């Protein structure tokens, strides 16, 4: 036998918020720590090269170290560090919420640096940026971009869609509850067993539990769901073009007209109850038909439509019965998976599962870079 | 830009039953036909090298061509064809139900030939054979073995479990309905809304619809489920050893004592109704507790148990409400996915979806072999 041993791949991690910290924690622990060589971490202001001369970095000690010993963030020098590493090609993990870094993905990829990211911006904004990313990645070049965690966090949503497409299945429809926040809100507001809780109360509870963005309108606008549909849609050869990305997706907002003039988050939250009549009516109408209300994203290839909307589902539908808490549920109806779809369900948000989506992408790149002797 | 273009990988396909034919069909169609170079097909008696001198092979013309122009099957010469191909390393697809071919996987892998298979034998029989396969595959060598379709057909079950394990999640429990046949039988026999159909009637209908093996006892023995649990269990570092594979898994048989002396398939089918009392009692007992009956496989890492058994589930449990037809449903409870599990559901049997499990493995190998320039 030869003495084959896959080498560790160099990795730089930018962005150390909740998800970034969870990625760091997974990367520093077995079994991932033997596959990767973390050569740099950075937050939005500072970066530090690794390993440190003294004690090793840990998920708990990095913050004061970065504060005291970090250098001002300089993306160009991070990229040069990665591309000149003796074990290059390496991987750039963008765990920021930045718009700026995604805009330079094409340049990063052109340097032969692979990218893994939970940041939805590049894949869900203008088609020209996304086309530029595609032109600079496999199979057009040997360089890779992976963004599994941009839809469904750690759930295998993009990988499943890629498998269906790559093996020649024909996608007919993708339908799902893609927002953990909106899943929770409607699972509580419109229950199979009934109930008369007010929409404003549910939103307030969701906010208090930390399930919403600081301004809940960022969830209720549906924009996050529209971004996810854009990402999925672009993996399907026969789907609509969406030139402006998520902004091209017809998206029903859950901020009712009566509240559209609330100018601040505070005013909106204060006046939240003014929207209750609007949602009461919707729930009542559904209830009369024996249905519940869910906020869903739909890609319907037969109709050539991509949209985010409030949908009504019978009380024995999986979106009504099987869906719990803040879970995502996504169903794929295809030529092979019909009439019954392939369904994937589980937590679609949270730092640990989102980080897992990122680190499982890292593993795939590691395997692809180290399979040949 | 360089003129990077991933090369087609040479593939030999052995086994041309229902699944083999569906694999052939997918391999000969876009988009897979540009990724792979099918250099040989074989059934259990004959093989033929490709391309043919005259017309191209198709999923409909291969059978008479093989009959008239094929050579007697000689596995050694197939392996030598693959390993001497100018574009080696190639892939050997074992779509047979054979015991013999899996027993030589270690030799095939030692030649640097990658293996993809829907055949459960190597991964679910003796641990020594499986250990031998592992020792001859990545990360111990550059050679790969993939068997996604051995559990859940085209559903992403093994890939999801591998991702969870590789990223450091801790598996607590895997529980599911793993047999399409037994899913159908119990979804019909023990419904949420009740009903008094006899077990023997449901088995007869399932047999008439072609959902069962020619001898339904091959499904009702639970052996197929025990094989699937063995395959899953061996991917989990902390799971029980199962030295004899599926034969080490405690497995409840659905052939009741009163029928255990039926010596032939015909006698068994004739006397099927003698077992109805047994199943009526089980259903009635569950019904009194507001539960339904399902045949499940369970890997419980906290209890260190792997078992196949009749389980009882509340009528609002996903195994009762969400499960339809002959679908599989598999739930993963892990440190990250708890208390609510990650759940995957959909058709778990059928030629097209099983073939998709095989061809999605081929794609992964193709990517791993062709990523570097």
From TrEMBL, chains A, B:
Cite the Homoserine dehydrogenase catalytic domain residue spans from the record.
Answer: 156-363
User: InterPro entries per the record?
Assistant: Asp/hSer_DH_NAD-bd (IPR005106), Bifunc_Aspkin/hSer_DH (IPR011147), HDH_cat (IPR001342), HDH_CS (IPR019811), HDH_short (IPR022697), NAD(P)-bd_dom_sf (IPR036291)
- Provide the alphabetized UniProt keywords: Amino-acid biosynthesis, Methionine biosynthesis, NADP, Oxidoreductase, Threonine biosynthesis
Question: Family per UniProt?
Answer: Belongs to the homoserine dehydrogenase family.
Which EC numbers characterise this protein's activity in its record? 1.1.1.3
The kind of enzyme this is, by top-level EC class, is oxidoreductase
Name the species this protein comes from: Kwoniella shivajii
Give me the reactions it catalyses: L-homoserine + NADP(+) = L-aspartate 4-semialdehyde + NADPH + H(+)
Q: Which residues are in the Aspartate/homoserine dehydrogenase NAD-binding domain?
A: 15-134
Metabolic or biological pathway: Amino-acid biosynthesis; L-threonine biosynthesis; L-threonine from L-aspartate: step 3/5; Amino-acid biosynthesis; L-methionine biosynthesis via de novo pathway; L-homoserine from L-aspartate: step 3/3
State the protein's name. Homoserine dehydrogenase
Pfam families the UniProt entry points to: Homoserine_dh, NAD_binding_3
Q: Which domain of life is it from?
A: Eukaryota
- UniProt KW Oxidoreductase keyword: yes
Entry cofactors: a metal cation
């Amino acid at each position: 036998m030869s003495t084959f041993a896959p080498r560790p791949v160099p990795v730089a991690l930018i962005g150390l918020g909740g998800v970034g910290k969870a990625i760091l924690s997974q990367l520093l622990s077995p079994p991932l720590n033997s596959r990767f060589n973390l050569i740099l971490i950075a937050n939005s202001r500072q970066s530090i090269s690794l390993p440190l001369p003294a004690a090793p970095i840990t998920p708990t000690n990095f913050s004061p170290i970065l504060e005291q010993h970090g250098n001002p963030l300089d993306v160009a020098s991070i990229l040069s560090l990665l591309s000149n590493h003796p074990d290059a090609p390496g991987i750039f993990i963008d765990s920021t919420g930045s718009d700026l870094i995604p805009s330079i993905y094409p340049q990063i990829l052109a340097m032969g640096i692979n990218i893994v990211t939970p940041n939805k911006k590049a894949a869900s904004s203008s088609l020209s940026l996304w086309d530029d990313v595609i032109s600079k990645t496999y199979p057009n070049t040997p360089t890779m971009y992976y963004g599994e965690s941009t839809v469904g966090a750690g759930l295998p949503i993009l990988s499943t869609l890629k498998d269906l497409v790559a093996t020649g299945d024909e996608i007919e429809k993708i339908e799902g509850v893609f927002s953990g926040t909106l899943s929770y809100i409607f699972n509580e507001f419109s229950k199979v067993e009934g109930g008369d809780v007010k929409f404003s109360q549910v939103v307030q509870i969701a906010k208090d539990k930390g399930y919403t963005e600081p301004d809940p309108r960022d969830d209720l606008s549906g924009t996050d769901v529209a971004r996810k549909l854009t990402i999925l849609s672009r993996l399907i050869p026969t789907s609509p073009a969406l030139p402006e990305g998520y902004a091209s997706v017809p998206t029903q907002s859950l901020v009712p007209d009566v509240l559209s003039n609330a100018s601040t988050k505070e005013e909106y939250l204060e006046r939240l109850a003014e929207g209750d009549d609007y949602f009461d009516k919707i729930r009542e109408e559904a209830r009369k038909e024996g249905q519940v209300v869910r906020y869903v994203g739909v890609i319907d290839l037969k109709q050539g439509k991509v949209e985010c909307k409030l949908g009504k589902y019978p009380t024995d539908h999986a979106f009504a019965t099987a869906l719990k808490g803040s879970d995502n549920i996504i169903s794929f109806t295809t030529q092979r998976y019909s009439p019954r779809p392939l369904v994937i369900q589980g937590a679609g948000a949270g730092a640990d599962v989102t980080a897992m989506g990122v680190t499982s992408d890292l593993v795939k790149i590691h395997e692809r870079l180290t399979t040949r002797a």
